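Hey,
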Amino acid sequence: MTEPVIVIPAYQPADSLPTLVSELIARNFTVVVVDDGSSPECARIFSRIQAGAPRATLLRHAINLGKGAALRTGINHALTTYPESAGIVTADADGQHLVDDIARVACELQQNASQLVLGVRSFTAGVPLRSRFGNRLTRSLVHALIGQKMTDTQTGLRGIPRALACDLLRLSASGYEFELDMLVLGKHLSVPVKEVPISTVYLDGNASSHFNPVRDSMKIYFVLFRFALLSLATAVVDNLVFIVAYAFLERVAVAQAIGRAVAVCFNYTSARRAVFLSRARHSETLPKFLALVIANGFVSYAVLTYLHSRFGLSVIASKLIAEGLLFCANF
């Protein structure tokens, strides 16, 4: 198995990018740079990169498609062109990642090609405030919502094992949220995470970054809140069906079963594809999902009947309270 391939997505890159590529090639790395629809003024920069062939490959997007799309293009090329490589190492084109750090992440990946290696920065007082705040908020949400504790969730320096890289090609995210989707998918697939400390470099207050604090942050946080949104939508479906079924049948247990059955049909495919991004066989995921649904149904029914008989609450009010408590517990 050969060393990982370095993939660098580049949009309006700095003059330092060809130097970075040359230094990586000098260390015997194969480098794939993806020009994500940069302006004609950047042609001279990319021409210097092409001079590093054959160990430097330049791929182009006709228009700017986003960092996630550029990463997928580079990852796909690396996987198909270098099938013996240990995996993919992604690095940014804005000067934040030093050659030594990229090499360290690549070495970690080659030593254990089944783990996702993250080059993590230290967010000290010298780091721009928006970067410190954004990383702190995102890593707290990642820990709370997907149960993964990480030091730097937004790092662009990553060592990606081949198996995970193949699954990443199926993701639809095209912007910065692609990198957070990668963490969600890795967590779902039980890919171990290895954190490697790297230098924290912000040139001119990170002025070269193309990250839009409002638009891109909204896309990133939507990735994290997909589960909550789907859970709320499922709860609405479940409760509405229960209310209608109970109005006609006046039997709590039957209405509960009907509501749960409809909610399962609505939730399973959405949770599998849109939230957890799973490609596992139905024979593996469906029994676990149904077991959880059945267990939740019995608990909900028990709480509902207890509230109704013990405190005299209406069936509908008891149902809503029971489901609200279960939502918090499941979350």
